[in-house]
Design goal:
The structure is a homodimer of 306-residue chains.
Chain A lengths: L2 E7 L13 E6 L2 E7 L3 H7 L7 E5 L5 H4 L2 H10 L6 E5 L2 H12 L8 E5 L6 E5 L3 E7 L7 E7 L5 E2 L1 H6 L7 H5 L4 E2 L5 E2 L1 H4 E2 L6 E5 L8 H4 L5 E5 L7 H6 L5 H10 L4 E5 L9 H8 L5 E3 L5 E3 L4
């Protein structure tokens, strides 16, 4: 039942000697999503001894280099290791041209199929779902077209109460419909209400990723009441003018979004290389939103069941 | 009088947790050349606390990703740090298309001028010179068009013998022509031969870089008698079949080139990620060429005056 975010890169624009450009690995029930893929992502994954072939979905927020320049290297390595399983990329439409040009000029082909889904529009859109989760994109406001992502668990079927199933001696072939909400009718025509033999599943969890954006009110509804919000905090608010002119956020902006959207916890990232000690950003955010952490390289953040 | 090679990446194809893709920084008398620029090059330079704005020339051997995917990130960082000085790139002609597409799709412009010189032909060609050095390209044999590079000092003027200059009381304004080989004629019309008042300058040094290539006899003349030869050694000779089919070299091939070309020293690199302990490659090369070293990340190799 794991829902966990691993930070691979926390640096904005230019890397530092310890901070890499944006990238995060998200494990939702064994499905692995990569959110952005800055230069060095595959190296970070190697350092964590993570098997890159597990990655199935790659979400690229926008085409500034610090958010995608690790993508070609990652795909090439997957191919050199003879991957066969398809990879799905959700990204601005230009990504296909970039990949095509590289593979043409390097006279190489991938060993697996790429499924490229271009991101579109600014409203909340479901871009993927399976039986257990849903992935959404929504528009951010940056200097170039840029999208945020929200990953949500689906509500799971009700759980069986083992002792009740035994008590009423319910046959195995009926359990699926009972999990879906059916009552049980005994051989004596007694109706056993579903609530007596099942319990509600846990509340679905959610994670939102806002890579590069200026503060805007419209973002609140997109990330409303998520369990964990990653929000960029490139600058301290004493550089709010610079944040505005570059379409970035301050740590205070990020905390304000978290507060207004009533999220459970906040992760700050995309730090300007000017900050050697990131506590200046953390402490500022804490003044208005207490449950906040720094998205430092190698850190892992579990989203627990409620 | 420094001529020094710093290794930034030694890995072939895929990086490992400790080895980066190909990149080397070469300092020749304060001119900084980057030979290849694999993913993570700017991060490696940061770790070495090297000021990236010092780099003036970037040589890209070919367009396989492990040799150039760090280029866009490096140029972007130079620009974000507001570089004004031109950068010259020697690379296969496709590089211009790759850079154009990225900067178009990221809606960004560099703060400095890029001077892109496309590599051409397989013969030895001088592609750059100034008063102190010359840079040459020559064709390698790989799966895609690929070039090696040779960097040579120019012969410096003869040096003045200070004690002789004082003994004959030679006026300052004549020293330049004396350095160029003129004799000195005293006020009494006595001819002082140039050899008496000057000494020969040291023999020019040279470095050759052979990134990705299968063994071929034609390479010998290109790297003949260089002081230091970097030659790829992707495989041990027990995988020579694989080396041939992928157009790569074994450690024995690299040593054979060094021996036949009568070079002074050999650096091995571009190691397959299958080799955890690289001594298997080093020891094999030593069986036919003794003065050989491993181009490990962070290692520095001085080319001393002769």
């Amino acid at each position: 039942m794991l829902f966990e975010v691993t930070i691979l890169g926390s640096s904005s624009a230019t890397p530092t000697s310890t901070r890499y450009p944006s990238a995060q690995l998200v494990n939702l029930l064994g499905r692995f999503f990569l959110f952005d893929c800055g230069e060095g992502t595959q190296i970070q994954l190697r350092k964590l001894s993570f098997k890159i072939q597990k990655i199935q979905f790659i979400c690229i927020s926008h085409l500034h280099g610090d958010h995608y320049l690790g993508l070609i290297g990652l795909l090439s390595t997957m191919s050199l290791l003879n991957r066969k399983k398809e990879v799905t990329i959700f990204a601005p439409k230009g990504i296909a041209k970039i990949l095509d040009l590289h593979f043409k000029l390097s006279y190489s082909e991938l060993s697996f199929k790429l499924n490229i889904i271009p991101l579109q529009g600014s409203s909340m859109k479901r871009i993927f779902e399976d039986e257990s989760c849903e992935l959404f994109s929504f528009g951010l406001k940056h200097r170039i077209p840029c999208w945020g992502f929200k990953l949500k668990e689906k509500k799971r079927p009700r759980g069986l109460i083992k002792s009740a199933i035994e008590k009423y001696n319910i046959p195995f072939h009926l359990l699926k419909s009972i999990k879906s909400g059916s009552d049980y009718i005994t051989p004596d025509k007694e109706v056993i209400k579903n609530q007596i033999i099942t319990m509600d599943s846990s509340i679905p969890r959610s994670y939102a990723y806002c890579s590069d954006t200026i503060y805007f009110d419209g973002i609140i509804e997109h990330v409303f009441e998520v369990d964990m919000l990653y929000h960029e905090a490139t600058f301290h608010s004493n550089l709010s003018k610079r944040a505005r002119s570059t379409f970035h956020s301050t740590s205070l902006d990020a905390a304000m979004v978290a507060k207004k959207a009533n999220v459970k916890s906040l992760l700050l990232g995309h730090f300007s290389s000017r900050y050697k000690d990131l506590n200046i950003l953390l402490n500022e955010a804490k003044t208005i939103f207490p449950n906040v952490n720094l998205a430092i390289e190698g850190s892992k953040w579990k989203i627990n069941k409620k």
